[in-house]
Amino acid sequence: MPHTAARLRPFATSIFATMSRLAVERGAVNLGQGFPDFDGPSWIKDAAKAAIDQHSNQYAPLPGLPVLRQRLAARYTRDTGLPCDADTQVCITCGCTEAIAAALLGLCNPGDEVAIVEPFFDSYRGCLALASATPVPIALRPVVHNGRIIDMALDEGELRAAMARKPRAILFNTPHNPTGKVFTPAELALIARLCVEHDVIAISDEVYERLVFGGARHISIASLPGMADRTMTLSSIGKTFSLTGWKVGWVIGSPSLVTAARAAHQQLTFSIATPLQHAAAEALRREDDAVAELLPLLAENRDRLAEGLRRLDVELFMPDGTYFIYARHEALSRRLGVTPAPGQSPDVACCMALIDRGIAAIPPTAFYVRPELGASMIRLAFCKRRETIDQGLAKLAQL
């Protein structure tokens, strides 16, 4: 890559793109990249088609269409109990990925530190590189009881040490990709107290906010004491409505924080597809309908895939949210006879062996500042049709 800027060379090709390409080439069941193999509700797509004919198809305002911002402001107030002004506190972005980039570029000066919970969505590191900011890692570590992973817990010592450095921000994701963990009220309260104590901004990626199971409950850290004016809440319609290709996301926060994000957003994309913003507003109006249809499928898929893995003695963390299972690959690697090549991480070796057997999974070392922490794990996605999950289970049974 002789012409690629040095800061971006490590991020030129994502692990998601690599594994999805291999899945297509080898005809594998794709339980790797986190996109559904089905579309969202037809009524949302109908709203997009109607918007093309009924509304302007020219540039939307930089911060987003008023109707979408107003709907998001009302939703935010409903969920957090906080007032939200649609004109000054909301910015529509090209998916949550651009929201992350805009937040970091808008806030950080070169050399600023940003505390980051690992493992993380892979674009976090790339966006930090774009902003010339330095990551300070805080680990989520497995908690094992009677041979089972019962939690992925924040390393409190690392959290306190990272925040004591007074970083510009802390960037984290709940419900959490790739582990499926939903941060507990106690964990969020600790992060909030440290943010207030050390004057740190929280950048909270909440794209899986509606995809929680059983008794789990998602809490926006912005709603906690002292956090309303120091939190940037990021999300999108992609995961909730199974429309990941639409790339309609947002930043919500105090006017001063959103002004920073808008300054970067103006230079990155300026505005997002106008008809899709109209359709996104309609999607949010009927959000409960979409969630009620999607959650039972995801819950069933989660249980079926987990049971299939356990039949192979795979140790896994049962997710409370998202649509991923995070699992130790030791039992699978042993069954597959995996021996990593020199310099190859064990998780990569396992995933390459799995794809040879017709199953695509994601090796998570790309999601760490310290890749050795993820070398024993793999991630599998269950945001698929029931037939796809059954095909994956059949492939697993052959192991």
A few lines on this structure:
The protein is an alpha/beta fold and 399 residues long.
CATH first level of the largest domain? Alpha Beta
Largest sheet: 8 strands, mixed
Query: Could you say what the CATH architecture of the largest domain is?
Result: 3-Layer(aba) Sandwich
Number of E-type strands: 13
Mean pLDDT: 96
Describe this protein's structure.
The longest helix is centred in the C-terminal third of the chain and has 25 residues, at 287-311. It is built from 13 helices and 13 strands. The protein is 42% helix and 16% strand. The protein has two domains: 6-40 and 289-398, Aspartate Aminotransferase, domain 1 (Alpha-Beta Complex); 43-287, Type I PLP-dependent aspartate aminotransferase-like (Major domain) (Aspartate Aminotransferase, domain 2, 3-Layer(aba) Sandwich). Helix 3 runs parallel beside helix 9 and helix 4 (95-107) crosses helix 8 (255-268). The strands form three sheets. An eight-stranded mixed β-sheet has the order 2-9-8-7-6-3-4-5, with helices on both faces. The protein has a three-stranded antiparallel β-sheet with strand order 10-11-13. A two-stranded parallel sheet has the order 1-12. The chain is of the alpha/beta class and 399 residues long. It is globular and about 60 Å long. It has helices spanning 15-26, 42-54, 66-80, 95-107, 123-130, 156-164, 185-198, 255-268, 274-285, 287-311, 330-336, 346-356, 386-398, and strands at 29-30, 90-93, 113-118, 134-145, 148-154, 169-173, 201-205, 231-236, 249-252, 316-317, 324-328, 359-360, 377-381.
